[in-house]
Write a structure and sequence with these properties.
The protein is built from 7 helices and 5 strands, in the order αβαααβαβααββ. The protein has a domain at 4-115. It is mainly alpha-helical and 223 residues long. A hairpin with a 6-residue loop joins strand 4 (197-198) and strand 5 (205-206). The strands form 2 sheets. Strands 1-3-2 form a 3-stranded antiparallel beta sheet. Strands 4-5 form a two-stranded antiparallel sheet. The two termini are 30 Å apart. The longest helix is centred in the first third of the chain and has 16 residues, at 4-19.
Length: 223
Amino acid sequence: MADDLDRLFERLVSVLAADAPGRLAVPFPAAEVYERLVPYRSNRSVLKVATHQDYEMAVLRLLAGERGYASLEPAEVQDALRREAGESNPDAGLFRHFPDAILSLNRLAAERSLRGDRAYAPPSPAPLAPPPESSDAAEREEAEGEQAEKAPLAGAAFELAEQSESPRQCPYCGETLPGSRKVNFCPQCGQPPSGELRCPACGGEVDVGWRYCVSCGRATGFE
């Protein structure tokens, strides 16, 4: 069941999508969330928040990176907000001290929200029981594995434990990864491991799904 954080993220995504094409992929100052895009006064009924403090707590949780809906730069600011959100009596308005921190939305979660998927948070990497394989499924998996092995390396690849009894999942899209082999890219979404990408222009760190570098503003070329 959706809570204040889910409704805030859904409202933010819909406002950005209506603002301009491609707006969801562009990082922006955190202050825009509560000052311009989804301010409390004009959105409290849509968000179904009982008090202004409930609204601020939802913003704090979003900026703290809860459920993987968004990431905040500098990372130490997001870490501070995450610690505060976990306190028994948190200062819900702490995020107002960092209006210039740069917020980037999770592209996959945003797309799921726009499609109206009931659960659009990034999936947690929990093991699933392997489905029975037909000959067609086995051939498909072999072809996907060959394609992944031919792809150029982008940083260290995530390894699958050869002795694992349950299949591993892509930490980004949640799809099952091919077993008993080294996986450089997910055969379903094409993403490498989170946090290992570098901007081709300046070499700065970029996260999975970012289309623009937060350091130099150049397009990363990653989809």
